[in-house]
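Let us practice reading a record.
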Amino acid sequence: MTDRSNHSSSLRGFTLLELMLVMGIIGILAGVGLGMFASFDPGRRAAVGLVQNVLRQAQQTAVARRAPSVVRIDVATGALVAEALSVAGTWHFESTPGGAGPLAGGRGIDAVALEFPRDIVTRDGYTGSAVDFELGDRRPRLTIDLTEDPLLNPRRGFSLDVALRPAKLEAARVVDIGGIVQLDVRSDGGLDGRIVTRRLDELGREVNGPPVAVRSGSGALRVGRWTLVTLRYDRRELTLLADGVPLARRGEERELWNLGGPMTLGDAQKRWAGALDQVVLATVTAADEYQLPPSVTFAPGTPGMIRFLAGGTLDPGLHAGPVTIQLQFDDGATDQVLVNLFGTIE
């Protein structure tokens, strides 16, 4: 009898108090779990992650290519466009054709020599050989067809590098890109750069506007010395540099006008007395567009442009401090992405 009573007692279920305690614990755990799940919105995190990734890509591209990169933000449409410079063509003039003829360029795009009376290559170049324009009274020049490859079109921005060594200081045009980009040398050793941009007239039609020009001081070039000259435009400013040192800047944001011809090295109107080497044309070819989800918008006041310098830092000329990009969601919540002055994204 005693054994049967003890066995029945051991098979009894939970008491009411125990059941209430277990249910309470389950309720607490369920409430915490539901709260955590509610705070996890994959669409929201995806939108924030998209903005962060686009900015990081632009910053890393600026460091890797040693050239400025830009993220343009259209607040009205929720679009982000990442732009960066890519080398489109290079010409180092290492071949010796023995007179007028093609000189091999990067990616199979050659330069054609015009009006050269003899061998056009000198071995004393900036890096290896160079083209010598000091050839008597003729007006020698080289032409390069930029229509062979759409990557060569500088419409959305460009960077032009060219090494110059004047034999004497005379005013002349040394580079003309399709009539819309020109680089001139002056008789005082200074440099002039200009571009022709696309504008709208009073009827809303696209027209070519007046030239936008930058001008260095005298002495940027010296007789008998190589100088690497850079003319760069990123649809924020036109910049002229010599051996990496900025000489002149001017703000401008429009696209360039249509190419009107080839790239010409040398002046068709007046002979330039000097040598030329290492022509590198980089254009804005990496223009990737991204779109926020329909449930996410940029807050009013979001900057229309984030610009990273060649080292990956924010451009202090455009950004006085860290940049905050505020995102608004259709449920009224907000989130933000911060870009600090060193270019890191948080």
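A brief commentary: The first helix runs from residue 2 to 10.
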